[in-house]
Protein: G protein-coupled receptor
Amino acid sequence: PSISNNLTNFTLAGLIDTDYHLAMSLLGSISVLVSIVLIYLIILKTPLASKQYRIGLVVLQLCFLFFDVHWCFLFVPLFTLPYFAGYCTGLLCTTIKIDMHLHMIFTLLMATETFAWFFICMLQRHQVLL
Structure:
């Protein structure tokens, strides 16, 4: 079956891209600042008795930080819903021309790493409670 003429050249308006980039940059900046403050507080305000737990929390927060920087500044995916498609408008896609599927693989790896460290922190806290 052929694609109808109105879908052959489906693009989004440049205004949507600009607004989306502005929103992602704003949200990413807020998230990065909050992550940096949280890392600072975890390192300085956590009691020394919780040293193992503190290391896990710092690594978990670093995972959040790397994910936010990648998603909000370097990748910036723009999904074309309701179609199962999308394109990358981030810094690495526009300057270095890294493919979107590599960004999606990195995103999946970072999400898996974040979940793993969250689980490790949860187990460490559970062991302390027992």
